[in-house]
């Protein structure tokens, strides 16, 4: 069963941001709620390549993924 997460002016999305902003890292990724696996995989690759750490997908999901409302822009 698919849940419609869009309203007229906004949609529910997922966001993850690197928590090492002090080091100058500005990684942030936002995607649709049904694209969670790609969000987790991309974040894990970022942490591995940029910060030299291996983290599990479960850890990223539990500690770093936020649900956000995304404003939708209408095409002219």
- The amount of beta strand, in percent, is 25-35%
Secondary-structure class: alpha+beta
Oligomer: single chain
Main sheet attributes: strand count, strand direction, barrel closure: 3 strands, antiparallel
Structure description:
The protein has 76 residues and is an alpha+beta fold. The protein contains two helices and three strands, in the order ββααβ. A three-stranded antiparallel β-sheet has the order 2-1-3. The relative contact order is 0.27. The model has no long low-confidence stretch (mean pLDDT 82).
Put the structure in a nutshell.
This protein is an alpha+beta fold. The chain has 2 helices and 3 strands, in the order ββααβ.
Topology (elements, then pairings):
Blueprint lengths: L9 E8 L10 E5 L3 H16 L5 H8 L1 E6 L5
Antiparallel strand pairs: 1-2, 1-3
Features:
alpha+beta; 76 residues; three-stranded antiparallel β-sheet; elongated; 32% helix
């Amino acid at each position: 069963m698919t849940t419609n997460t869009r309203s007229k002016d906004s949609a529910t999305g997922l966001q993850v941001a690197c928590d090492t902003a002090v080091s100058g890292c500005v990684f942030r990724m936002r995607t649709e709620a049904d694209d969670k696996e790609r969000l987790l995989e991309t974040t894990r690759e970022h942490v591995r390549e940029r910060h030299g750490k291996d983290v599990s997908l479960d850890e990223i999901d539990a500690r770093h993924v936020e649900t956000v409302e995304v404003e939708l822009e209408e095409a002219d």
